[in-house]
Amino acid sequence: MPTALSARLRRALPRPRLTRRRIVIGAVVLAVLVGALSWAVRPSSPGYRITSQMITVQTGPAGTTPISLDTTYYQPDSASAAHPAAAVLLAHGFGGTKDDVADDAKDLASRGYAVLAWTAEGFGESGGQIHLDSPDWEVKDAQHLIDWLSARPEVRKDGPRDPRVAAVGASYGGGLALMLAGYDRRVDAIVPQITWNDLGNAFLPSATGAGASSGVFKKGWAGIFFTGGAVPAALPGSGAAVPGAGGATLPGAGGALTPPTGATPTCGRFAADLCAAYLSIATTGRATPDQLALLERSSPASVLDRIHAPALLIQGQADSLFPLSEADANAKGIAANGTPVQVDWFIGGHDGGNGPQSDQDRNRYLTVQWLDHYLLGKGSAPSTSFTYSRLAGIDANTDSVVALGYSVHGYPGLSGQSSTTVTVAGPPQPAVNPPNGTPAGISTVPGVGGGPAGATGGTAQDVPGQHADFYSEPLKSTVDVVGTPTVRVRAASPTGQAVLFVKLYDVDPHSGATLPDGLVAPVRLTGLPATLADAPAVTVTLPGIVHQFQAGHRLRVTVATSDQAYLSPPDPTVYQLAVTGGVRLPTVHSTPIASPDLIWRWILAGLAAALAIGTVVAIVLGRRRHRKFSNRSGSARLSPRDDPDQSHLARADLADIPLVVSGLRKEYGDGFVAVSKVDFTVRRGQVVGLLGPNGAGKTTSLRVLMGLTKPTAGDIYVFGHRLVSGAPVLSRLGALVEGPGFLPHLSGLANLQLYWRSTGRPLADARLDEALDIAGLGDAVHRRIKTYSHGMRQRLAIAQAMLGLPELLVLDEPTDGLDPPQIAEMRRVLRRYATDGRAVLVSSHLLAEVEQTCTHVVVVHKGTVVADGPVDDIVGDSPSVQFDVSDPATATEVLNRSGVRSVSGEGNGTLIADLDGADRADVVAELVRAGVGVNRVVPRRRLEDAFLSLVGGDTKASGER
Q1: Terminus of the chain with fewer CB atoms < 10 Å: N or C?
Q2: Can you tell me the distance from the alpha carbon of 915 to that of 598, in angstroms, rounded to the nearest whole number?
Q3: What Gene Ontology molecular function terms does this protein carry (predicted)?
Q4: Separation CA 301–CA 739 (nearest Å)
């Protein structure tokens, strides 16, 4: 039976007429919504079939050695002889198996590619030995797998025994992709990642360009490689075909305790020639021409001039195994053939892991785009621009690292498009080469970076007496380095030779030195004079980096004699070292790019916006129709809140008052009333404290004030303007309510500047110096946020709220995390701020601080204001009395019988009693009659007492939202 209310509503509101047009529109909207819902909740289907099998190939120099390879084939459901699919050969990292790339294979198969993954020779269940991507073994293996794909009816063909196929892999798999493309023209596209150009140069690098024959042996990584040939585990960061899509472990971490089948105690599953080469180089630290030739046969450098498959080269910035220079050499060699090449650097690598999620998504997007075009002919040719990433900060929602991508027109190489030279200086210095390289300095611990944060070089250490340091002056402006810096070094040695390790540190004057990505340039010098005066300058090319050297920081060039990742000369000696001139820092002209994740967010946001616009249009049309009907019937009137044209009208009578809160009410949808009725005013020159027990409505009131939630009723006026989202008057207000979000890798000053620029106002209007002076941060503002204590972050947040010296400052618990001296300083800060016509509204639970800081107090209890006025007036109303008595226990019993509200002891015979209207003389008489000596009776005028009397001792939470 309808209620009286529903009957009145039916009479008041117009009845909708079901016209043909409305029925059609409604049906369309319903169909769209049902379709969207069905799409969102539809059961997922893999869309492919998986088949695992052993495939025997005839390989070896003569092509007659049978080797069994453990494979898995992912066949898309959409692929058939009538509708063939392009194929992808998916290779794993060193020490891993086909299982390491299973997630990548499934992803590609779900996109319609036929994917064949396999375990390389010498690993897992596959037979054979490790030949390091030899053209006679692993490359021939892959060629036979291409033959196998060509026999599949569901795989697209370009000709007899010529499938449409790409080779994709990371690290060991990336080297295989490059080698295969050089030996087999059937490969139509390649995506090598974090891989090498020349194994000789990679394991015997020389930063002077002298070549592997004069390089310094990378014993740490070589040892990990050799160990990885004995156990079935994967190199860190090498298991994923698309960075970020596969976990990897350190060789030996979780591997079998006994050698796999075919392994020998000395060599594991390495081929005998490679094993002998490793044992020799690891012993002497030098490689013979034959050994270098053996490594060269397994190096893409030997076949770059034969690669015609378009190549997407993805390389990690945090990689001391295969640094950016390896990808650079591959890119230049392939591009020389006229072959399309795109280069991408991401924040990760063998030391840095898979990188931030934003980088993983971007690299996955680039990979799919590359394959879609060159295998399927989809879309226009991908750009051959150069892309890279820079660490941006920490995602406040996930606590994960966030990277920003940048694009550069054309590949500039490691020398950049332009450069800045920074002078470094210091006197010539001696440095000791320790016997057998012990103790040794630390740059990056090979394979233990574990992520971008672990590869920042923050733990780099140099042994005292074993290095020379040369410093620049503080930088006058920030330099964004993208590429390989260079520096000129001079050295003298009594033995005529030296092995040195050159590093470029970023020295923050407050938080110390950081070695970007933990990378170091090894140098072997020969023919050196005994004295430094006769030593020529040698140009050292430092590792490629992407790093921002901030203004105020110094550069430090350190020339060390040892590094635990490399093999040093065994004999102790003393070198003389010097640096000539400055450091050349390469830079590029780049533009920010959106990550695929951001692109999809924009697409979804666009769909949501379209849906929202349709909803708003429908509501507006409905309201207009209702208003017209109501105005005709005389049953409704428009209020200023309903009329958007009235929302920004200012009240002239309130134009000089910073804040007026009138009739504020906030009720949530479930009926919970957080604020029932709040009224108060904040005038110029006042510091107003907003007090109340938990659940009283303080935070809700501040959230409404800052536009973080909408009120149910009431109005807020700031300098006479009704407060609405986006109102220009908000520029006159500064606030700290929800807590700030700072980028930890930037200094406090840089964070403040970034925040102010985001407001769109000129930096000159920020009045930074004045805000910093009031907040009292001092030199700490130049330190990186990650070095700040909680209290320092809080003070910086308050400085941020003070930028531009807003006329009204709103702070929620500003003393949170501050120690007593800082709290006292904050008291002075707020008092200083409320001058020159400014005003402060502060919410705090520290009643004693409010009493000493604030000029006025607003006490809120159960959603309403129970007291409002000057602090002295509020304290004057306190009913508390202090009794100094001879017998506190008896006095407490007497006071409780006398009807007082509460009694508490403070020691030494002092009691504090809330008389709750009882006559003080009568209470004293009761104490005397009970034999209690009363030494003193004085009013206890404290804000705390007044507060407790106003809220009735109710200080417990009541579910405030």
Answers
A1: N
A2: 64
A3: ATP binding; ATP hydrolysis activity; dipeptidyl-peptidase activity
A4: 53
DSSP state of 63: T
Instruction: State how far the Cα of 901 lies from the Cα of 718, in Å rounded to an integer.
Output: 40
Q: What is the DSSP string of 537-598?
A: PEEEEPPPEEEEE-TT-EEEEEEES--TTSPPPSS-EEEEEEEEEEEEEEE---EEE--HHH
Structure tokens at 733: 């207000």
Q: How, if at all, do strands 87-91 and 165-170 pair?
A: parallel
- Phi first, then psi: what are they for 95, rounded to 5°? 85, -5
> Which residues share a beta bridge with 267?
none
Task: Provide the CA 442 distance to its chain's centre, in angstroms.
Answer: 26
Q: Do domains 48-203+210-381 and 652-871 have the same CATH topology?
A: yes
Q: Omega into 529 within 30° of 0, i.e. cis?
A: no
Query: What is the predicted pLDDT for the residue at 520?
Result: 96
Mark residue 720 as left, alpha or beta (left: phi above 0; alpha: psi -120 to 50; beta: remaining). Answer: left
**What span, in angstroms and rounded, lies between the C-alpha atoms of 443 and 43?**
50
Contacts of 371 (CB under 8 A, 6+ apart): 86, 88, 108, 113, 166, 168, 189, 191
| Domain boundaries 418-592, CATH class | mainly beta
Task: Report in angstroms the alpha-carbon separations of 438 from 279, 285, 844.
Answer: 21, 16, 57
CATH topology of domain 652-871: Rossmann fold (3.40.50)
Structure tokens at 315: 């390389």
The CATH classification number of 48-203+210-381 equals 3.40.50.1820
What length does the chain have?
961
Residue position matching structure tokens 């390896």 = 326
In the chain (961 residues long), the average pLDDT of successive 10-residue segments reads: 38 43 50 49 70 96 95 96 97 94 95 97 94 96 97 96 97 97 97 97 94 93 77 45 37 39 74 92 93 95 97 95 96 96 94 85 92 94 90 58 85 95 96 90 70 51 93 94 97 96 92 90 96 95 95 95 92 95 94 59 50 54 46 34 45 88 83 84 90 76 77 87 75 75 80 79 83 74 82 83 88 76 76 83 76 84 83 69 85 84 79 78 83 78 62 47 45
**Can you give the pTM of this predicted structure?**
0.63
Phi, psi of 909 (to 5 degrees): 80, 15
Measured distance CA(456)–CA(443) in Å, rounded? 10
Count CB atoms within 10 A of the CB of residue 605. Answer: 12
For residue 147, what is the enclosing H or E element?
A: helix 138-150
What kind and span of H or E run contains 10? helix 4-12
Q: Which CATH code fits 879-940? A: 3.30.70.100
